[in-house]
Predict the 3D structure of the following.
Amino acid sequence: MVLIAALYATPSLFDRFVLPVALPYLPGADVPPRGVEAGDAPLGTPPPAPASTAFSLMESPVEEQEWVAYDPCRPVHYVVRPDSAPVGSEGLVQEAVAAVSAATGLQFIDDGATTEAPSEDRDLYQPELYGKTWVPVLITWTSEAEIPRLAGDIAGLGGSDYAQTPGQPLVYVGGQVQLDAPDAVESLRYPDGRAYLRATIMHELAHVVGLDHVDDPGQLMYEQNVGRVSFGEGDLAGLALLGSGPCAPGL
Ligand SMILES: [Zn+2]
């Protein structure tokens, strides 16, 4: 077993509260028109959850709502900034997204490459780059030179922002995964490097959809990579719950 010195993420990195959404939509508004791609029913359903409680959900910023999730009634778009992607990492992002999609029932759409840089203060509406819709999940191969919080053994960071139409549930929008490219290059030197790097991306994406760390080395959401390359039962139970959040057609 290859042990890669890699801490995962600080889940609270992107906790920035967006409230309230301006209504009604006006040209030039700083939020997208309401209900873009919103369906009447969830686009997918999570698989039956294992009977495990070995998971923790990200804390909700409001008392009235216990936990936050992506709107399952619309697709979750994602883009990748390919700069600095390590040789040998081809396909890993898509495979990690597929694993999270399977575990949550959330439908992800690959919108391809972007030039957008990672940021802790990301604008959630960038119509010039992405059209009149909430920004997609942004996955970047970066480094501590660009993202100082990746210093040391931190292999990646992940999280989402919130948005809300007044009176309706809070939902996640605009997630980010920031991957430490030099650390990833190091990981890929090992025989099982691809599996470990894929697991790192899965861990960060699980933060994006709302899973927090859990103090159980048998789960991928343990704070440190101890050799797991797949989701554990607790991870899967949490992800299934996170795929069953409320729809937010008014957003
Ligand atoms: Zn983490």
Remarks:
- The first helix runs from residue 92 to 104.
